[in-house]
Amino acid sequence: MDRTVVAVLFGGRSSEHSISSATAGGVLRAIDRERFDVIPVGITRDGAFILEEDDPDKFALDPARLPEVVDNGTRIIWPDSVLTRELKVADADGIRSLGDVDVVFPILHGRFGEDGTIQGFLELLDLPYVGAGLLMSAIGMDKHTTKSILTSAGVPVVPWVTLTRRALEHDRALWERRVRSLGLPVFVKPARAGSSVGVSKVSEWSELDGALDVAFAEDETVLVEQAVVGREVECGVLQGRDGAPPRVSVAGEIVVSGRDFYDFEAKYLGAAGVELVCPAELREGELAEMQRIAARAFDAVGGEGLSRVDFFFTGTDFFVNEVNTMPGFTPISMFPSCWIASGLSYPDLISELIDLAIERRG
Predict the structure, then answer these.
(1) What is the DSSP string of 149-211?
(2) 332-355: per-residue pLDDT in tens?
(3) Active-site residue, selected from the candidate residues 268, 303, 304, 333
(4) 1-55, pLDDT tens digit by residue?
């Protein structure tokens, strides 16, 4: 049987370049080579598409040296119309064919990859791809839009205020009153960033301006969110097959001790004070309610491919924090860990996502 050809796309121009590269390393190591042939396509920080090495070790997540796609002089040439799926590469020896691509696996986090831009590019080429479509990706990337849609769908979210520099300059007193109405502490986040990049916890109002500067460095729109006292729990969601409802994994929990919150260093650099527990200890009814809300949130933002739905659980109520349409995908990340605990192995999870993409767009 012919193997399916998968172009694994990673790196990119966002501040999450290295995390995308590390995620790709996990996928390159685990993908079923008896079913799939892989073409690794890296995107440099400057946006060049290059033919990368098919070497998982090169992209291992090392806190001392985060992985990166470095320009090697090659250039990927995408199909020139929807009449072909042939991928080519140009290098010092000229242009050669890499063969036809069956599906693209865009393991890209952050802007210019997870926000609908690469999805729109692939739609133009009529290439099937893994994950959320253009609209769902754009919605999921923007925290204000996500919260607004979830609220309209009856999904409980954390109270928030959305700010822009222009709004603050126009009437700072008004916006400060709205922010202060949330009470302390609050979290300040860029509207369109992930992996906790640009996120700060504000425990005193004197810290707000500094936190806003950090967030505005990542995006022109910033959210200030009320802090919720409760457990941080998450679950994975997969699109159902043949029109069936979405499938939701068991829950995982982030247990933070000795740190203000689950920041970038704790997520990826091995910083102390964080434990990932999967499955989380929830009563049967609590888990069922969390899974129900997760499925509703997934459907509300578009219901394609996959997502990780993050919650705060107060002990009585679940509040959706974020819907991540391309969650961290290293073997130890929460999304695959939750599915492994639900009985789906990491390689089988990768295969399922590729099969879903082909079924949906093939």
Answers:
(1) HHHHTT--B--EEEEEHHHHHH-HHHHHHHHHTT-SSEEEEETT--TTTT-EEESSGGGHHHH
(2) 889 999 999 999 999 999 999 999
(3) 268
(4) 689 999 999 999 988 899 899 999 999 999 999 999 999 999 999 999 999 999 9
Residue 179 CA to residue 268 CA, distance in Å, equals 30
pLDDT digits (tens, 9 = 90+) for 151-207: 999 999 999 999 999 999 999 999 999 999 999 999 999 998 765 678 999 999 999
- Whether 16 is catalytic: yes
CA 153 to CA 20: how far, in whole Å? 31
Q: Which two tokens stand for residue 73?
A: 């002089």
Report how far residue 263's alpha carbon sits from residue 228's, in angstroms, rounded to the nearest whole number. 16
Q: Are 134 and 120 in contact (CB under 8 A)?
A: yes
Output the DSSP codes for 229-252: -SEEEEEEEEPPGGGPPPEEEEEE
Set 14, 307, 321, 324: catalytic member: 324
34 is catalytic: no
pLDDT tens digits, 306-323: 999 999 999 999 999 999
Q: Which CATH class is domain 160-226?
A: alpha beta
Is 72 catalytic? The answer is no
User: What is the pLDDT at residue 258?
Assistant: 63
- What 3-state DSSP class applies to 65? strand
- The verdict on whether 195 is a catalytic residue reads yes
Find out whether 137 and 121 touch, Cβ atoms under 8 Å.
Answer: no
The predicted-structure confidence for 82-130, as pLDDT tens digits, reads as follows 999 999 999 999 999 999 999 999 999 988 999 999 999 999 999 999 9
Q: Which fold is adopted by the domain 4-129?
A: Rossmann fold (3.40.50)
Query: Does 362 qualify as catalytic in the annotation?
Result: no
Helix (H) / strand (E) element for 135: namely helix 134-141
Task: Say which of 18, 195, 249, 321 is annotated catalytic.
Answer: 195
Is 346 known to be catalytic?
no
The pLDDT, as a whole number, for residue 170 is 93
What CATH number matches the domain at 229-361, 3.40.309.10, 3.40.50.1820, 3.30.470.20, 3.40.47.10?
3.30.470.20
